[in-house]
Amino acid sequence: MHPGSITNVAGLKVGHFTDSRRPTGCTVVLCESGATCGVDVRGAAPGTRETDLLRPDNLVEQVHALLLSGGSAFGLDAAGGVMRWLDERGHGLAVGPARVPIVPAAVLFDLWVGDASIRPDAAAGYAACQAAAAAPPAQGSVGAGAGASVGKLFGIERAMKGGIGAASISVGAVTVGALIAVNAGGDVIDPAGGAVVAGTLDANGRPRSSAAAIAAGELPARAIAGMATTIGVVATNARLTKAQASKLATMAHDGLARSINPVHTMTDGDTLFALATGTIALPGEMTVLGTLAAEVTARAVLNAVRAAAGLTSPRLPSVSELTESKPPR
Are 28 and 7 in contact (CB under 8 A)? Predict the structure, then answer.
């Protein structure tokens, strides 16, 4: 078992599609046999699909895949390819004579980089499904994290490269994992000591605290709606109801709040899904699961930016580049 992958949760597969024409892509989490799902949308500028049906009082109990995509609202098209892949294999909710695959999705804004007319489409979603495996997924500048950036409150020209990251924790028979595409307007913070890991660059090209700058009276330019957004999935092998899955997604947002500052802003569409595969007989103990979900979410955020590769146009340095170039003390 890989130490730190959402695929440590039995019953899940992850696949990336990364577009070679520009930094963008999508990532699919497959649960072909069905998994209970909840969602919590916290950002004020979300781009989502099929989230209403995840309300505990609505009919559908399980989903068959979740999609995370770049391309802003255009990227929602990729869910159609995921549906086609599932449909071809007979996966879906039985409705009369047909089976309808249930594929909720969320998107992030990465149109800053490269040709904005190139966005993930149905073919991209299908390709992500074809690439899906139970092995640990690649992290960093791949899939939905290919064009992600962080620290954009003071402009894209002072931002750094974001990415997609994974993490997991097992306690006894229970496993909780996370897969997070980090495209925050705010900075990525290490909860262990509060240091800015990736974020707004200062005049010397080093990350600094946007929140501290704002508190000191340095205000950012007018923000653009949807310019950011961190999206992701937390998952467990425990048995949960839809209401419990929704609560798990809510508690996982605490992990975003620990590792991104500011977060859940008017220009973010921060959205987290929660999956419960129920591959073990144990029912979920929500305090424990929620604590673990917040922890793996924060770890996945840090893994995302630490694994990311920088871009040259626009210039978005990576954490590894700045670490390598840091002068000795």
Answer: no
